[in-house]
């Protein structure tokens, strides 16, 4: 064959290879761009969720202090009005406001100039001094209290007013704000202004803790745009940031979380560089492969690699999801008052069922839930639900408050209209007293003296209506009683004829376990699992199946069966 013919054949063989390479490069680049886009959206959504959750938590804590200060003033108006005719007793009112309210550092009843004809200015002031309080007067030539904002504004507005933050030069040089209300005497004449001073040192510590990311920082700005609380370190002026803001009612403050974009997307950008490098490397490898293998074999190999990659990612996701839930049993081997065991079998590689439990202050906090839908979206919603349960239950001890707070948070951030049925319980391990709240979930079984369902109120699932108020219920759990919790993957498990397992069979298995004294958590779940497998047979699992058994063993001394 002539040299010219060889070159012609090489060009003919190269053309399909070059076309394959071109198509591969376009496909890989498009895939990378799509992955980057959805990863970017997911990371941004996570940043919004984390920032809003932190803002909500901080906002609640700020409003708690605000409400306490306002209540301290409101509750003292009546006695201050009564004391106007006995001016020397006004300092008792201020002292009462300070001593009875830990959040208040100082208080005064500042009389309107000229109200008392023989004493034009009168303003007894009581403030904290170490472990006690001291009394002084604001009616001095150096301090013109009738010109102060905390005095003029409530008189001008005719209602309660939070002053702009200021440095209390005569009270310890601390940053503080004052809540004040106008006070009228029994004749309807404006007589004075009653105040409560609140130090803002606690606010600095609170805002410094708003680090949803390592380099994120919180900022609080007053109604006039003054920075009350700011970052402890300087940031570059050209640094790009994401800011998430909320208003603090009644105070006029604006609270924000500022997150540098490199903090949010830094990992994604580094991954993009790595992906680009891998893309170039992959194209180079593809050129080499095309020289030694056929086009169809190469295409088959690429398909297999993608399938393996997807399968591996789902396996990793499943491992991460399972790792978030309790998985080592017995979880509390040293405790003799309770036994717990649980199992979760997802219908797909990842699922939307969840359970969790932990002990705090000799109380067992536990929950079980079922997210609407299946697969990756449900698994993400499940992870968020479990995290919010841990966060809220760390500061709340009653199940109805826990569920209500979770519902408010999840409803606000729920852009996909997903929801989760949830059962939350708090079991006192010393008395056997159980508080619980059910949000649209299947009622648990109690197996002890007999077998029956725990009575549950009708509440809607979490994430549907942010204003829903969930009810609290309670029961006494006697020693040896097993609480059997489950998702509808148990009662709705289907066999090949599409018949469901149903609650009747669940109860029958529990009764058999009671009769055979097999109520230990691992035993009961094992019996229930075997019964479901025998019923379903070879039919494909249609829904996630989760079961959890809590057996209370400790017998309270004063508890007698009803």
Distance N to C terminus: 103 Å
CATH superfamily of the domain at 326-552: PPM-type phosphatase domain
The name of the CATH topology of the domain at 326-552 is Phosphatase 2c, domain 1
CATH architectural designation of the domain at 326-552: 4-Layer Sandwich
Choose one word for the global shape: flat
* Residue share in β-strands: 15-25%
Poorly predicted sequence stretches spanning 5 or more consecutive residues: none
Secondary-structure content class: alpha+beta
Annotation, overall tally of beta strands? 23
Q: Given the structure, what is the number of helices?
A: 12
How confident overall, as mean pLDDT?
Answer: 86
User: What does the radius of gyration come to?
Assistant: 33 Å
- Specify the CATH class of the domain at 326-552: Alpha Beta
How helix-rich are the residues, as a percent range? 40-55%
Quick synopsis:
The protein is an alpha+beta fold. The chain is built from twelve helices and 23 strands.
Provide tags for this entry:
Beta-Lactamase; flat; alpha+beta; Phosphatase 2c, domain 1; 23 strands; 562 residues; 7-stranded antiparallel β-sheet; 12 helices; 5-stranded antiparallel β-sheet
How would you portray this structure in words?
This protein has 562 residues and is an alpha+beta fold. Helices cover 42% and strands 24% of the residues. It has 12 helices and 23 strands. The strands form 5 sheets. Strands 1, 2, 3, 6, 7, 8 and 9 form a 7-stranded antiparallel beta sheet that branches. The chain is flat, with a radius of gyration of 33 Å. It starts with a helix and ends in a 10-residue tail after the last strand. The model has no long low-confidence stretch (mean pLDDT 86).
């Amino acid at each position: 064959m002539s040299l010219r013919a060889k070159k012609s054949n090489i060009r003919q063989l190269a053309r399909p290879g070059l076309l394959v390479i071109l198509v591969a490069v376009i496909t890989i680049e498009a895939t990378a761009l799509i992955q980057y886009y959805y990863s970017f959206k997911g990371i941004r959504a996570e940043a919004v969720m984390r920032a809003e959750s932190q803002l909500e938590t901080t906002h609640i804590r700020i409003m708690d202090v605000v409400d306490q200060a306002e209540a301290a003033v409101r509750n003292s108006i009546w006695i201050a009005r009564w004391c106007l005719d006995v001016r020397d007793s006004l300092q008792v009112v201020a002292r009462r406001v300070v001593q009875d309210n830990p959040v208040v550092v100082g208080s005064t009843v500042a009389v309107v100039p000229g109200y008392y004809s023989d004493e034009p200015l009168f303003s007894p002031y009581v403030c904290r001094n170490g472990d006690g309080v001291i009394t002084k007067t604001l009616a001095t030539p150096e301090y013109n209290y009738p010109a102060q904002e905390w005095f003029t504004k409530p008189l001008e507005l005719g209602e309660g007013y939070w002053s702009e933050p200021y440095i209390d030069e005569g009270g310890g040089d601390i940053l503080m704000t004052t809540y004040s209300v106008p006070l009228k005497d029994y004749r309807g004449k404006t007589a004075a202004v009653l105040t409560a001073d609140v130090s803002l040192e606690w606010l600095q510590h609170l805002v410094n803790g708003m680090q949803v990311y390592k380099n994120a920082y919180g900022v609080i700005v007053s109604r006039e745009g003054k920075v009350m609380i700011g970052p402890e370190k300087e940031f570059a002026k050209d640094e790009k940031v994401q800011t998430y803001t909320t208003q603090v009612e009644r105070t006029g403050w604006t609270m924000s979380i500022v997150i540098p974009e490199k903090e949010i997307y830094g990992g994604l950008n580094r991954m993009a560089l790595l992906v680009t490098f891998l893309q170039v490397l992959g194209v180079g490898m593809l050129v080499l492969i095309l020289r030694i293998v056929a086009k169809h074999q190469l295409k088959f190999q690429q398909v297999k690699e993608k399938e393996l990659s997807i399968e591996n990612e789902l396996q990793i996701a499943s491992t991460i999801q399972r790792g978030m839930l309790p998985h080592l049993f017995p979880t509390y081997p040293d405790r003799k008052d309770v036994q717990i065991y649980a199992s979760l079998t997802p219908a797909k590689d990842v699922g939307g069922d969840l359970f969790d439990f932990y002990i705090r202050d000799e109380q067992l906090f536990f929950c079980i839930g079922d997210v609407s839908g299946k697969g990756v979206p449900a698994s993400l919603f499940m992870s968020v639900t479990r995290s919010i349960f841990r966060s809220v239950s760390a500061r709340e001890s009653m199940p109805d408050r826990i569920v209500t707070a979770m519902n408010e948070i999840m409803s606000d951030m729920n852009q996909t209209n997903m929801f989760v049925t949830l059962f939350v319980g708090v079991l006192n391990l010393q008395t056997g007293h159980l508080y619980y709240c059910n949000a649209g979930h299947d009622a648990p079984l109690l197996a002890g003296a007999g077998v029956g369902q725990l009575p549950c109120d009708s509440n809607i699932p979490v994430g549907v209506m942010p204003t829903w108020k969930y009810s609290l219920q309670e029961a006494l759990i006697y020693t040896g009683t097993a609480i059997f919790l489950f998702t509808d993957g148990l009662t709705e498990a289907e066999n090949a004829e599409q018949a469901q397992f149903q609650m009747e069979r669940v109860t029958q298995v529990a009764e058999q376990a009671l009769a055979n004294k097999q109520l230990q958590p691992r035993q009961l779940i094992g019996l229930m699992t075997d019964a479901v497998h025998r019923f379903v047979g070879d039919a494909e699992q249609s829904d996630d199946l989760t079961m959890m058994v809590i057996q209370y063993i400790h017998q309270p001394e004063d508890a007698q069966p009803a």
